[in-house]
Write a structure and sequence with these properties.
The protein is α+β, with helices and mostly antiparallel strands. The chain has 2 helices and 4 strands. A hairpin with a 2-residue loop joins β2 (36-52) and β3 (55-67).
Length: 96
């Protein structure tokens, strides 16, 4: 099982329900591929370093995920299709 770190930039006007739906999608994909979300941290609404599209702010959400390697493609494709996700970054953590 591999460890991943996921950073999500979610639409700044997204309420808790819409943010929860995005996080639930991440949980579902991880569990479908034999893992789950190890920890989550909602950083709240912050100013972006540079403008992304028309957005100058976003809701930041970080999650540590454990799943098989094949799930990364499914997760990234799912996040690309989600309208509330402005940008995401999924990286594999180093083996300790």
């Amino acid at each position: 099982m591999r460890q991943y770190e996921l950073m999500l930039l979610v639409h700044p006007d997204a309420d808790e329900e819409r943010l929860g739906a995005v996080v639930e999608r991440v949980r579902r994909v991880a569990s479908d591929h034999g893992g789950g979300v190890v920890s989550e941290d909602n950083w709240g609404r912050r100013k972006l370093a540079y403008k992304i599209g028309r957005f100058t702010e976003a809701n930041y959400h970080m999650a540590n995920i454990e799943m098989e390697g094949a799930g990364t493609t499914v997760l990234e494709n799912s996040l690309k299709l989600t309208d509330d996700v402005i940008r995401h970054l999924l990286i594999r953590k180093d083996e300790e």
